[in-house]
Amino acid sequence: MEIKGIITSGHGKGAYFMSLPVYKTQFKDKLNFSPFPGTLNIKIGPSEIDNIHNIPRDKLKIIEGKENFGDVLLIKAILNKKINGAVVFPKKTTHGENIIEFIAAENIKKKLDVKDGDYVKISFEY
User: In whole angstroms, what is the distance from residue 85 CA to residue 95 CA?
Assistant: First the structure.
């Protein structure tokens, strides 16, 4: 499955959460890479939200939160057919359903030379 969206600014909280040991270790174990501290926020439309809802539950992996930190679901994905990573779905989030978060081992904006307002494509591996 492939979805399209537009890069948008986030709240700046992704870097904090991605650097927490409770998440960092599990991401490394489940994805075989240590994520860059931060997420790429991508705004998607209604049909893309429907596609996200249709991802088979058994294809999602879980990162277990501890104490006040919530669980995170994830699925491996490829951004613009160039960057391997994952889309993460935090159980606790301030984003609406129309914002998804992509993580990778590198700074995506620098690697792809993209900015807010640019279109991207995400291909899911399942």
Answer: 20
